Amino acid sequence: MEKINIILTNEVQNIIFETCKKSGRREIGGMLFAQHLSTNEFKVLEVTVAMEYLGTMSRFIRGIVSGLRQLAKFYKYHNYFYSKYNYLGDWHSHPNFKLYPSVTDDASMFKLLHDVEVGAYFLVLLIVKIKNSQLKVNGWAYFPGNKRVKCEIKVDTHALKYVALTYIQASLDLNYHSPTH
Ligand SMILES: [Zn+2]
Question: pTM of the prediction?
Answer without folding.
Answer: 0.80
